[in-house]
Amino acid sequence: MTALVRKPLTTLFALAVALAAAGPALAGDGGLSPVSPNAPGARGITDTYWFITVFIGIVFLVVEGLLVAFVIRYRRKARARDAEVPQIHGSSRLELLWTTVPVLILVAIATFVFVKLPGINRVPEASAAGPRLDVTVTGHQFYWEFAYPDGVVTIDRLRVPAGVPVRLTVTAPDWDVIHSWWIPALGGKIDAIPGRLNHTGFTAANAGTYVGRCAELCGIQHTAMLASVHVLPKPAFDAWLNQRERQQAAGTSGLGQEEWIGSCAKCHGLAGEGLVGPAVATSPTLLDGAKLAALLQVGKGQMPPVGRGWNGQQLDALAAYLKGRFGNG
Fold this sequence. Notes:
Radius of gyration: 28 Å
Distance between the termini: 86 Å
Strand content: 15-25%
Structural class: alpha+beta
Largest sheet: 5 strands, mixed
Number of helices: 7
Shape: elongated
Mean pLDDT: 87
Number of strands: 10
Order of helices and strands: HHHEEEEEEEEEEHHHH
Helix content: 40-55%
């Protein structure tokens, strides 16, 4: 009995280790492996994922391997159907083993997770290399609004500097629904709850564009509520932020186009041709600033108040863009 168990266990353990080592290389995007982490929090999540996956793989192979081994070893063979099979009595040592090992596995997993958890949830602080960037992330139906300390606002795309701690204050308006901010390469998800301020953050190691989505079912256009974080080298980010601040003050920042694409076109189509919502390209409301502002701030029918809480600069930016886009009829 002992020899029968020991040999499959040794073979299955070696196979499990080999599979665990080959997993990251064979998975690729969309497979078993999570996205490549680009921040400490995301790295902690990835480490935890692989640690638990290895344990799950080993347990699966051991259990299924023993099941197959016992099925083969103790099959009926040529015995008559009414013949009594050999009676095998329990083994106290074996019973103690299969009770203790699962407990030890759970303890190991729990210990690893609790060691990693503080680093995953930690909001980065300012470093000696420079100050921290604070951004307010507001989830709306069905777009993300990013507000920088100097008044710059962007829609659906957050720009941050590489190597600089970023602190995100995540919320949703009182009149909205619950959303959930999630960029897998930069950390775990955090809910945007109406009227409540939640905090998360990251320090992106490398420049690039990292995509994510709302991770909370928030309505009919939930799948269109995508987000991206564009990580720039520090000098390039500073230049963009300064330029965006000047352009936004002058009304030439492109904010109106971002608002149209992020908050309007997801329901009404890029050309206002109608999609989930009705066609609006020929609506006179688009060219009437007062009526447009009232529609955005109050909503109508099934349309949520997508612009409620916008300041005058944001409303003017959308009105100016729509006049230039649809003013010629």
